[in-house]
Amino acid sequence: MSYLIRVLLPDVPGSLGQLAEAIGLVDGNIESVDVVEAFDDGTVMDDIVVSLPKGAMADSLITAADTIDGVEVDSIRPFSGRVDRRGQIEVLAEVASQARDIPRAMESLVNVTPQTMTASWAVVLDDTGEGTPVSRVAGSMAAPEDDGTAPVDINVTGARMLNAETEEWIPESWGLL
């Protein structure tokens, strides 16, 4: 079974190698590594897709990570997406082919994003202008429901991760996932 483990680790040479070795010692096979974010404090957040042999417990990955100084496991969850990034071009071509039907194109985009970007869910928001409430255009199947609020001036100018701890406008249910 494959798992997506999000870890915070020191952004220094060798730290990812140490973590990879620890994962290998519990028979984990690393399928992909994506840098999520680098922080000013000298740490980096990585998403690592790891497959474990049948019968192995996901907890073994947490235990392995705990053996490395400075490594913290942020989350771990089953992963059923693809790690072959070549499919992303096909996805972009599919979305582009629907350019005349923006709502349909956005539905296509959010439904494939979790499989191609190691994300849990995705939403597309319409922020039509300053002082105008934001509305949801499309959401993937796993995206949380809206909470009925309509925030204004959210300062999201492009595709990016949301941080519920630092962005007050994000609905509470979105921060739980």
Automatic annotation (TrEMBL):
<dbReference type="InterPro" id="IPR002912">
    <property type="entry name" value="ACT_dom"/>
</dbReference>
<dbReference type="InterPro" id="IPR045865">
    <property type="entry name" value="ACT-like_dom_sf"/>
</dbReference>
<feature type="domain" description="ACT">
    <location>
        <begin position="4"/>
        <end position="81"/>
    </location>
</feature>
<protein>
    <submittedName>
        <fullName>Amino acid-binding ACT domain protein</fullName>
    </submittedName>
</protein>
